[in-house]
Model the fold of this input.
Amino acid sequence: MTPEVIVTLTLIAATFVYVLLCWILPFARCRACHGTGIRRTILLRRVTICRRCKGARMRLRIGRRVYNAFHNANTEAARAARAKGGAR
Done:
């Protein structure tokens, strides 16, 4: 096997694993607060709720956000096509 084929197969396998991960586990720990839901401010070291996850401790993975956007766009397009076709 040539190096190009090995690299291509590795990238395909990594993509497949990430898609599977987004499907099975769509949520991951928040990167800002490391999954605690709270953050310490720089000034006075006060404890506040994390602004990114709003204290939920989890975030939606980027791949799942992309999937949701495409799915919602497809659903809206199908709904508009049905409404246009049914109005005749």
